[in-house]
């Protein structure tokens, strides 16, 4: 099968790409709106782009009426935000942050999540998240349907048991993030495998040592 992307609609391209380029990490992003309320929203068009400088990419589509989503408007205005990664324990609350709420109502309150002051940016981080990156806006790209934000990571927060700072390794046996799959599906990361051969076969395990 071949599909010419020049001959199908943007919506059709989105449905195919979003269901095939999976799993995708989920960024749960906190920002502050004009009225001072905390906004939180999940986005799966997100990933790391590099380490020098340490930058991450966040792509946010426009609403059907062509207006900006709250997160995009807040980043453009304030140029700072916090990106959180979601694990199994907070998946339902992350998903609840995607509900449409009045601008004066915080998604964190709605979802039962706890704001904690950040160190270098105004938007708070989320206490329940295993990982949080404080970011300043580095660069913005704009397409007819999206704003693509390149953020410079200024500070990392992580659970105490997650990172070994002596060897600069993540204790993956303590880290169980979730990713976005096609349609409305999510995936976990418990079924992990290594390509280091064990008796001629890949080693498959649900418990992963430090990497």
Automatic annotation (TrEMBL):
Alphabetized SUPFAM superfamilies for the sequence: FMN-binding split barrel
Pfam families on file: Flavin_Reduct
Cofactor(s) needed for function: FMN
Chain ranges of the Flavin reductase like domain: 19-169
Keyword field contains Flavoprotein: yes
Annotated keywords: Flavoprotein, FMN
A GO molecular-function annotation: oxidoreductase activity, acting on the CH-NH group of donors, NAD or NADP as acceptor
Similarity comment text for this entry: Belongs to the flavoredoxin family.
Protein name per the record: Flavin reductase domain-containing protein
């Amino acid at each position: 099968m071949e599909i010419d992307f020049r001959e199908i609609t943007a919506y059709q391209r989105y449905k195919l790409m979003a269901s095939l380029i999976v799993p995708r990490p989920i960024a749960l992003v906190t920002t502050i709106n004009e009225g001072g309320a905390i906004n939180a929203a999940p986005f799966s068009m997100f990933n790391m782009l590099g380490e020098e400088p340490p930058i991450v990419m966040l792509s946010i589509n426009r609403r059907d009426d062509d207006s900006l989503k709250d997160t995009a408007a807040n980043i453009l205005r304030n140029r700072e935000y916090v990106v959180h990664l979601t694990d199994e324990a907070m998946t339902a609350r992350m998903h609840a942050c995607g509900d449409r709420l009045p601008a004066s109502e915080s998604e964190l309150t709605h979802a039962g999540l706890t704001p904690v002051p950040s160190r270098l940016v105004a938007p708070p981080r989320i206490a329940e998240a295993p990982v949080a990156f404080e970011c300043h806006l580095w660069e913005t790209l704009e397409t007819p349907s999206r704003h693509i934000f390149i953020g410079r990571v200024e500070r990392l927060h992580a659970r105490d048991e997650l990172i070994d700072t002596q060897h600069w390794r993540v204790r993956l046996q303590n880290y169980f993030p979730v990713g976005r799959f096609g349609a409305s599906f999510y995936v976990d990361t418990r079924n992990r495998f290594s390509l280091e051969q064990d008796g001629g076969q890949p080693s498959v395990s649900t418990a992963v040592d430090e990497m």
